[in-house]
Amino acid sequence: MKKLLLSLLTVSLILASCGGTSPVKFNDTIVKANETISHVSDSYTETLSAAIASGSYESIAAATDSALVKIDAELDIVKALEAPKGAEEFKNAALKTYQDLRAIVEAGRKFTTLTEESSDEEFDKISDAYDAKMDAYNASFEQLANTQKAYAKEAGYELK
């Protein structure tokens, strides 16, 4: 009985000393995901712009698929993160930002429906929808930055 009690006490102390995810480690994981997401966004935008400029809309499909895989991977990483105390809003802001980028890429896929015979109105409709998604993403990204600053202040660490 004493051995069982000592074993339980030892396990309890070990678990209590772990304390979950540290705020800095949590932040660093999201920063790394942000860097990846930003790279995906920049790369996709460049590919999309080049395809539109050349009228090569079919090349957008492969870029879209690749971007979605990368975005989904980062979404999965952040979803799986254990949020330290007070970090839920920060985590949710990151997830919303990544989901908004995913929506941009999905909107970009619609350019693949265009052909040389497509009207300006068809192009404008897709372009306007894409731009609206981009505006939503930019707003989410700004909100993420503000949420990150607030969380860093609350958790007592300095952003670099």
SSE order, one letter for each helix or strand: HHHHH
Radius of gyration, CA atoms, in whole angstroms: 22 Å
* Beginning-to-end CA distance, first to last residue: 52 Å
Principal-axes geometry comes out as elongated
Number of domains: 1
Counting H and I runs of at least 4 residues, what is the number of helices? 5
The description of the largest β-sheet is: none
Summarize the helices and strands and which ones pair or pack.
Layout: H1 2-18, H2 23-54, H3 60-80, H4 88-109, H5 120-155
Helix pairs in contact: 2-3, 2-4, 3-4, 4-5
Report on the structure:
The model is unreliable at 1-18 (pLDDT under 50). The chain is elongated. With 160 residues, it is mainly alpha-helical. Helix 2 (23-54) packs parallel to helix 4 (88-109) and helix 3 (60-80) runs antiparallel to helix 4. The termini are far apart. It has helices at residues 2-18, 23-54, 60-80, 88-109, 120-155. It has one domain.
What attributes characterize this protein structure?
elongated; 160 residues; 5 helices; mainly alpha; single chain
